[in-house]
Amino acid sequence: MTAGYAADSDLAVPPGYSALPPGAADEIRAVEEEIDRTEAAALILAGNAGLDPYQKITMLGKLLLFDKTLSVNRNQACVFCHMPET
Question: What is the residue range of 75's domain?
Fold first, then answer.
């Protein structure tokens, strides 16, 4: 039998399956930390009164994309799945 992975850790994990592949929890934590750092930097930059209109629109988009409070459970930013660099 080949071990598989349950995609959602809230689901019951059947015998022979793992909730996450090895190292995935560390990778997820690193992505979440990067999201938090990027949002904090964007908030600081958004407070800069010297931004031109284009920069303000760009900053608004970044703030919305990195804001965790917009998710249903207020715990996951859109950028976690929808990565802007792809």
Answer: 22-80
Q: How many domains does the chain have?
A: 1
The three-state secondary structure class of 5 is strand
85 domain residue, yes or no:
no
Q: Is residue 32 part of a domain?
A: yes
Report how far apart, in Å, the C-alpha atoms of 19 and of each of 2, 15, 27, 51, 79 are.
14, 11, 14, 45, 22
Q: What is the pLDDT of residues 44-69, one digit of tens each?
A: 888 877 888 898 888 888 899 989 99
**Spatial distance between the Cα atoms of 25 and 31, rounded to a whole number of angstroms:** 10
What is d(CA 75, CA 35) in angstroms, rounded to the nearest whole number? 12
- Whole-number Å distance between alpha carbons of 31 and 39: 12
